[in-house]
Predict the 3D structure of the following.
Amino acid sequence: MPVLVAVALVLLAALGTWTVVSGKPGARSGGDRKAQKTYASLPTMTFTLGGSDARQVDIRVLLEIEPTGAPNPATPFVPRIADQMADRLRQIEPSQLSGAEGANLIKSTVASVMKREAQAVRVREVLLERMVVR
């Protein structure tokens, strides 16, 4: 009797392991295109903020983009992105960049600039790697 219980437990463990492994998207032969994540990084950029005191913000952004063949498809657009970001951030007061609202403001600004200036690059999400106001 104890041998049958042990065999049943081993079979249940094997069945559970097989279920978990076969349920993963990467385990299937074709894979899932939406499960793939492709990232493009923008270089660290420094911008002057609006307001009476000349404060600056350093930003480093990582973009989650639609998969493409190019290793970093945003690279050709960096000068245009930086120029538009400088114009937009001159309109922002340093006090607006505090807390989560500040991070969301920067993310939405980057997303709108990317949509306008780099239409060939489809951005899924904007991730802030670094944001320092000084």
The two ends are 73 Å apart (CA to CA). The CA atoms of residues 47 and 87 lie 9 Å apart. The helical segments are 2-23, 78-89, 99-117. Strands lie at 38-41, 45-48, 56-65, 123-133.
